[in-house]
Amino acid sequence: MTPDERQALEQRIHAAHDSGHRQDAATLLLEGYGREILGFLIARVRDREAAHEIFSRFSEDLWSGLPGFRWQCSARVWSYTLARHAASHYGREAQRRRGRQVPLSHAGPISQVADRVRTATLQSAGTEARNRIVRLRERLPADDQTLLILRINRQLTWTEIAQVMFHEGETVSPEVLEREAIRLRKRYQSAKDKLRKLALAEGVLKATDEG
Question: Global pTM?
Fold first, then answer.
């Protein structure tokens, strides 16, 4: 999706939301961003069945949270924030049985849309997982992986990444958000350095390739 296409999608989602057309806004959001969100979840948790469950939780949170969304960030950034929170929540629920798909019981009429997105994404999600650099990235802490994915693969700005990563998504001042963006940028550079060292050690990257 080009920046212009993304801007047009954001405008359509915003218009549907402001008109009170909750289902239309949710459908546009899922159809526009659902595949990249699920791809992000697969890369983060490295388990497709777990990604199924987390995507279900994300879709439910999207449906229930949409009426209160205040557009302090883009719909895309908000989606990544919801997805990260859903993944963190899943990780804390040790008692949940792995491999059990959670039905979209609270996602209302967007359940079928979410299922279509999930099916289409999982059918085409194998290529990235086979990449050697991606396998090395999986050795890093989850938040380091998230930073690399959001910046390199999704090309979010540092302010957008700060909005996604900031605690529970509470409203903060621009000054606080800017400080968080600076901190995350430093952590990102550290994560890149760690990944480079792993790549050198494994022979994926040669010293002559650096720089």
Answer: 0.81
